[in-house]
Amino acid sequence: MSVTLQKANIFQALEIWEILQQAILRRKADGSKQWQDGYPNLAVIKNDIEKNQGFVLMDDENIVGYCAILINNEPEYANLKGEWLSNEDFVVFHRVAIDEGHLGKGLAKTMMTLIEDFALENNIHSIKADTNFDNVAMLSIFEKLGYAYCGEVFFRGNARKAFEKVLN
């Protein structure tokens, strides 16, 4: 499987939303509280795309995953209860979701590696991200890919674990 990370377009929004709905249901089935409050939703995805921040993981012509990628644009990260590894420019990703028909193939890790490539192509050497305390799958991926736990950030009143990886 040879996958690429591409900017999403508005015509892909409904298919992306289906993938995110699958992920929302998986989080719930796992007992996680992440994404159980009406966020994310189709309007969020459309906003990502309109701001050129929505990205699809493609296997040939098929969307197999989605994430939002932002540069230096996460205001909550300024309020970290903890300490970041760096204070330079950073890439942040949100809303990582893999199509349920493609789970177990390491695509989330592949997507994160492609995000690292995106950062380096933009001469950025820091990736910051966060996840719920109960998102075991993402916490495991952070550990496997060498992300360092930096503290807590808060979204919609909920604490989330924040991580950073400094790229060479």
UniProtKB/TrEMBL annotation:
CDD domains assigned to the protein according to its UniProt record, in alphabetical order: NAT_SF (cd04301)
Keywords: Acyltransferase, Transferase
Domain of life according to the entry: Bacteria
Family annotation (Pfam families): Acetyltransf_1 (PF00583)
Any GO molecular function: acyltransferase activity, transferring groups other than amino-acyl groups
Residue span, N-acetyltransferase domain: 3-168
PANTHER family associated with the record: ACETYLTRANSFERASE (PTHR43420)
Designated name of the protein: GNAT family N-acetyltransferase
Organism listed in the record: Pedobacter changchengzhani
